[in-house]
Amino acid sequence: MTEFWLISAPGEKTCQQTWDKLLTATTRTNNLSTNNKFNIPDLKVGTLDVLVGLSDELAKLDAFVESVVKKVAQYMADVLEDSRDKVQENLLANGVDLVTYVTRFQWDMAKYPIKQSLKNISEIVSKQVSQIDNDLKARASAYNNLKGNLQNLERKNAGSLLTRSLADIVKKDDFVLDSEYLITMLVVVPKTNYSDWQRTYETLSEMVVPRSTNLLFEDQESGLFTVTLFRKAIDDFRLKARENKFTVRDFQYNEEEMKADKEEMTRLSTDKKKQFGPLVRWLKVNFSEAFIAWIHIKALRVFVESVLRYGLPVNFQAMLLQPNKKNMKKLREVLNDLYKHLDSSAAAIIDQSAMDIPGLNLSQQEYYPYVYYKIDCNLLDFK
């Protein structure tokens, strides 16, 4: 399970007692969850008005930062061409896997100085993550253009003989070049019609050079043949060929153009390789930064919400629960029993949602008598 429930409850006589009580209820007898203390430092409380406003702002910021974290993770998967194992090992926070980072969370005093007000800290995060989001858009756009152009060229060099580039198939020797009267044309012939072609090509129109056909290349369906004829017979030959299910390719042998195509492909391929390493490094670093920022936002939300709900002086224990997948419903019930005395209106909401009153979609609100936020470390949406 990569899902965590970040909750807080008021300190009993001491915060340790709150912690012990949770452990007894959720792990000692029934193995409902794996629990860790979640350490939040002594942050500056500020005024009640500021806290109320900040509560809404942090909710929006949380959603925004989470979306950026997911975007960076998903783009990492796209760049690494979806080799799942490689993606996970590149998605680290502070050099450790995400579950380890979350369960051993320590506030980063250097990045987010706790002498600053809560509003300032949230603005630092907002600015930092917006920058990552903008940089990602620019880098992704440049790399995607390169990748798209390369794929288009690769597509031109693959596919059926009717449409694919012929630059890597034909050679100068295959053509009569620089003749005032003669021209060599390329014809795609289905494999089932080879014998028809050999039997009829000389008589499809007047002025076809006898024995001038050669098979240059085959794919699964058809073959590419040359044929040499007089220039004035081109239109007639093309028409008769089509009537016999042979397709004349529009192609003029031009060494310069073909060389340019090959060079362009080499250039794009080299550019893509050159950009790949630095891009993956950037994604790794900035994924880590964004993820760390996201968990700090969760910590801020728990702090603000706990002060608003449980009052001053600051006295609450933040706890990180990793639910046992089979027992999630049971864990929710145990937590509600443990903390329902904190907020009778929340208990009423829970009772109502249990009854599922039509038109009253209260179960969607995820409001509990204790402070609760979900953290899901599974950030990849593999198609």
TrEMBL record:
UniProt-listed InterPro entries: ATPase_V1-cplx_csu, Vac_ATP_synth_c_sf
A Pfam family matched in the record: V-ATPase_C
MF GO annotations: proton-transporting ATPase activity, rotational mechanism
Origin superkingdom: Eukaryota
Record key words, sorted: Acetylation, Hydrogen ion transport, Ion transport, Transport
Gene Ontology CC annotation, any one: lysosomal membrane
Function, in words: Subunit of the V1 complex of vacuolar(H+)-ATPase (V-ATPase), a multisubunit enzyme composed of a peripheral complex (V1) that hydrolyzes ATP and a membrane integral complex (V0) that translocates protons. V-ATPase is responsible for acidifying and maintaining the pH of intracellular compartments and in some cell types, is targeted to the plasma membrane, where it is responsible for acidifying the extracellular environment. Subunit C is necessary for the assembly of the catalytic sector of the enzyme and is likely to have a specific function in its catalytic activity.
Quaternary structure and partners: V-ATPase is a heteromultimeric enzyme made up of two complexes: the ATP-hydrolytic V1 complex and the proton translocation V0 complex. The V1 complex consists of three catalytic AB heterodimers that form a heterohexamer, three peripheral stalks each consisting of EG heterodimers, one central rotor including subunits D and F, and the regulatory subunits C and H. The proton translocation complex V0 consists of the proton transport subunit a, a ring of proteolipid subunits c9c'', rotary subunit d, subunits e and f, and two accessory subunits.
Protein family per UniProt: Belongs to the V-ATPase C subunit family.
Protein name, entry field: V-type proton ATPase subunit C
Gene giving rise to this polypeptide: LOC107601989
